[in-house]
Design goal:
This protein is α/β, with parallel strands linked by helices and 513 residues long. The chain folds into 2 domains: 247 residues, Rossmann fold (3-Layer(aba) Sandwich), CATH 3.40.50.300; 241 residues, P-loop containing nucleotide triphosphate hydrolases (Rossmann fold, 3-Layer(aba) Sandwich). Helix content is 33%, strand content 24%. The protein contains 18 helices and 22 strands.
């Protein structure tokens, strides 16, 4: 815990907070404290109750009778968002709520504009906004249009807007989901400034590395109940995972399929593939019933290689064989027809149809199979297929007819994976399959990968999460600067090692042994 947080009483106390929706209990006697100058991380699976608790804090929801919220030791009534703001509480949601057609200053004072002669005083807004931007170390002007800013810069505007209301407690809900590593670094610098100014930050994230780097304390919710709080010195992956999912880390990664030896047939063979720009002379094999990992630093060419294999981008060199036979893939449709499925790293922009139902998203890749005489579709067949997939992949949803956008990140990812599996592929390429999902969904996705491998499907997993690669892969290809720098093979006697992967990824010690 930070020195500031160790002194005096908590700035915020939420005691025995419960919330019921109809017959469903979303929160049950949850308590949380935050001290001035502290980053208090809040963790838990999707559906654990984190968002509900924060919506009660923001005044968007009213808690059930019996609980209480105290600020500076005094009970307060947070009946609506305006009252919460008056008490110095600001919530920055994952989906930003800025008006892109207004300036930075106008967004910062939206709803509380200083007026002159009955009109909004834009000059006054700029004058009052500039010191706040300077306080946060922000380089752009208050006169800039928000539409001209990057996602990371827009995040800074949200924080600046919170400070215009003299916020003392700032909640950040998955703030780095859409940020680059550089923008994430800037955000962390801003959080350090907020701490130095005595502001309490409640930080919600699924990313363990961020929790280790930022948090003074971590509280965990599970199934709407408070599990416990760890100080910074007590943090470890095994303890956090055990608290969040109720089981030991040793059962987290699934690798029950038999690890294939060299005698297993190569389902996919790639030789000398490249695009002349980002990928150069890459050769590898993916074997039946194995999980082949592809690791490397950001920008090493992993995703670009996968897109060449899938036909999403055009290769200028190289060839592919499937089950030993030459195959020509110049489009995703040809790849699917050949038996190659690809799970994109950006499920919302490039994978799912967010305004369509779960059933439609699962079935859209196999529509020709449902065609009936006269051009009509067999909707009962499609519905049965979707219901079977939902059950098989443990997709948590009240029904297959709801929009896929209503699902959590982990369940969206499983719905997209279900669509790929309906094409009955021989090779499945998964690009960052657990990005943006909670630990419980990660564990289920690992189970699915292991089941696919046991069925003899060749699995290729691209991941920036080295513990994930080490936990699920049988072999690992390491890319550096658009080329395959080397291969590391695991065994029971000599498991895969993170140091060996990083040596190849950075080129720090020449060729790996």
């Amino acid at each position: 815990m930070s020195e500031t947080a160790e002194k005096g009483r908590p700035l915020l106390e939420m005691r025995n907070i419960s919330k019921t929706f109809g017959a469903s209990k979303a929160l049950s006697d949850v308590s949380l404290t935050a001290h001035p100058g502290e980053v208090h991380a809040l963790m838990g699976e999707n559906g654990a109750g984190k968002s509900t608790l924060m919506k009660i804090l923001s005044g968007a929801y009213t808690a059930d009778p019996g609980g209480s919220v105290l600020i500076d030791g005094e009970p307060v009534a947070l009946g609506d968002p305006m009252k919460a703001r008056a008490y110095g509480i600001a919530v920055i949601y994952q989906e930003l709520s800025l008006a892109p057609n207004l300036t930075v200053a106008q967004n910062m004072f939206l709803g509380s504009e200083p007026a002159r002669y009955g009109f909004a005083d834009r000059a006054a807004m700029r004058r009052r906004a500039e010191p706040i931007l300077k306080q946060l170390g922000i380089g752009f002007s208050a006169a800039r249009m928000v539409s001209e800013l990057s996602l990371g810069e827009r995040q800074m505007v949200e924080i600046a807007r919170a400070l215009t209301t003299s916020a003392r407690i700032i909640v950040m809900d998955e703030p780095t989901t859409s940020l680059t590593s550089r923008e994430t670094g800037r955000l962390f610098d801003v959080i350090a400034r907020l701490k130095a100014d005595g502001i309490a930050v409640i930080y919600i994230s699924h990313r363990m590395e961020e929790i280790y780097q930022l948090s003074d304390r971590v509280s965990v919710l599970r199934d709407g109940a408070y599990v416990g709080t760890l100080d910074r010195s007590e943090l470890s992956a095994s303890r956090l995972v055990s608290m969040m999912v109720g089981r030991d880390l040793s059962s987290f990664y699934k690798k029950e399929h038999s690890q294939p030896g060299g005698e297993r047939p190569a389902v996919l063979s790639v030789r000398n593939m490249g695009d002349g720009v980002r990928v150069h002379d890459c050769s590898f094999e993916a074997r039946a019933g194995e999980v082949l990992g592809i690791a490397g630093l950001v920008g090493s060419g992993r995703t670009e290689l996968a897109r060449l294999v899938y036909g999403a981008d055009t290769s200028t060199t190289g060839e592919m064989r499937l089950d030993g036979k030459p195959v020509s893939v110049h489009s995703p449709r040809q790849a699917l027809d050949a038996g190659i499925a690809y799970l994109t790293e950006d499920r919302k922009a490039l994978g799912l149809f967010l305004d369509m139902s779960i059933s439609d998203n699962i079935n859209i890749g196999v529509i020709p199979q449902d065609a009936m005489r006269g051009g009509f579709l067999d909707f009962s067949k499609a519905r049965e297929r979707a219901q079977r997939a939902v059950k098989s992949l443990s997709i948590r949803a009240p029904g297959t007819g709801i929009n896929v956008s209503a699902l959590s990140g982990g369940n969206q990812q499983k719905a997209l994976l279900a669509r790929l599996l309906e094409t009955e592929p021989k090779v499945v390429v998964l690009d960052e399959p657990t990005r943006g999902v909670d630990v419980g969904a990660k564990s289920e996705i690992y189970r699915i990968i292991d089941e696919l491998a046991r069925k003899g499907i060749a699995i290729v997993v691209i991941s920036s999460d080295l513990p994930e690669i080490l936990g699920i892969a049988d072999r690992v290809l390491v890319m550096r600067e658009g080329r395959i720098a080397g291969e590391i093979v695991g065994s029971a006697e000599r498991p895969l090692e993170q140091e060996a992967i990083m040596t190849l990824a950075t080129g720090s010690a020449g060729e790996a042994a």
